């Protein structure tokens, strides 16, 4: 009897680094957790996941150590990122995409050459679309607001370490994949974030449909691309060409 085919997976990735801007900064830890498509058509977490220390080839600044608490002596004998990243990022042929919370950060370090040009799902951008009522969209805020089924509290700790964070993100991703297709999540992830509420100014906290046209116009030239994109989407809605905010997920899933 031929071996049973392995299911398709989306691999969640989380990195801890020396800072935010490569090549000046580098990876000190990589973690992962797989989400697999079951025979029943539902997505579920699969396997134990894992994490590896990485030698960044430079000092770890105290300001970033204060976030992840990784010591230089812990990574001194670890392999360099390019020596271990490719098999973690490219579990070929089963992987259909990679995912991360605010994936643009991971993508700076996990380049196309290391991922074999993988598509990425940004669970932050997708949460904006699917769960706009959340009071916040950070990985940990979504964890405690949503309380995903099956999430073992202790396994998701400590926060700001590569495996626990990828484990928590994987629960968000699982539920997203059971609401929308891989293709839809990838498409949303390629666009700027569609913000459910105004972030700042006199209209802070309001849904975009609640602000007047004069206020909306000011956001069309904002420095933040997510704000500009959301304002333009709301303007298009007002002109009869789309939806934004609470109704956006329903409209785009049709």
UniProtKB/TrEMBL annotation:
Q: Does the keyword Cytoplasm apply?
A: no
Gene3D superfamilies in the record: Ribonuclease H-like superfamily/Ribonuclease H
List, for all copies, the residue spans of the domain called Exonuclease: 9-182
EC code = 3.1.11.-
- Enumerate the UniProt keywords alphabetically: Hydrolase
**Among its keywords, does the record have Nucleotide-binding?**
no
Q: Which SMART domains match?
A: EXOIII
Name the InterPro entries for this protein. Answer: Ribonucl_H (IPR013520), RNaseH-like_sf (IPR012337), RNaseH_sf (IPR036397)
* Gene Ontology terms, MF aspect: exonuclease activity; nucleic acid binding
User: Tell me, what is an example of a GO biological process annotation in this record?
Assistant: DNA metabolic process
- Any idea what this protein is called? Exodeoxyribonuclease X
Which species is listed as the source?
Answer: Sphingomonas yantingensis
